[in-house]
Amino acid sequence: MKKQRNQFSHLTAIERVFLSFPAQLFLDKNLLQGKILDFGCGLGNDVKLLRQKGFDITGYDPYYFPQYPIEKFDTIICLYVLNVLFPEEQANVLMEVSHLLKPGGKAYYAVRRDLKKEGFREHYIHKKPTYQCIVKLPFQSMQLNDSCEIYEYVHYNHQRHSSSNCPFCNPQKTMILLTESATAYAMIDGYPVSKGHGLIVPKRHVANYFELPFKEQSACWFMANKVQEILSKKFSPDGFNVGMNINRSAGQNMMHATIHIIPRYQGDTVGAKGGVRNVIPKSKIRN
Fold first, then answer.
1. Which of 38, 56, 242, 269 is the most buried (most CB within 10 A)?
2. Same structural domain, 62 and 110
């Protein structure tokens, strides 16, 4: 299925000779720490102005500064990007920012709060149909006024989410997080069966995957594409097995739904038949 994409999302970028309100707020509050990334920097005004003040900041924008970052960052800012993207694009930005953030780092999202309605309208300068939508994020809100809201984001395993002892609701800080979206995260399995064995975990505490709301199921499978991409770049496997264990009779030990993304390598099993059809030996299958 082809991704929905707003081809004119870049046309909301404007030239400025001063810092944006969120960037100035971060500067005043001393929140711009270490190596900084402005994700979706548009024309790069904040990047240029903060560099002049001595900050180690990189700008990335798929249209204006398309060289994708290859390192990880202590601080990531993403200002007024999500409001001009379709939901699938928004989820992709959340996952990319999460993946580019160093463990223990912080990201900040600014979204508009002055929008009266959602949809396309002709841009007053570019005369092209530009899309605007209202965005709510499940992260800590640190600033809210009539114009914008600013969220602070830290990796899922650097927070306490419930009083339960479920290791997937409250994963350890030492866990290697691959990426995260609003409703799911992905990690390297603590007991990998192959190099790079990944695990996608919905944030909702549900034992049976099929009991998740459809929107959250879809988010998990959308994340599977991102995890496959990350693992392919890092480990160069020859193939993948993707699957779930649902209920104890199917091998589920932890009663929190997960999806396994298992890289496969030539020669990693004895014989050629190591796929999902051989999970149950043929001698045990009833006719």
1. 38
2. yes
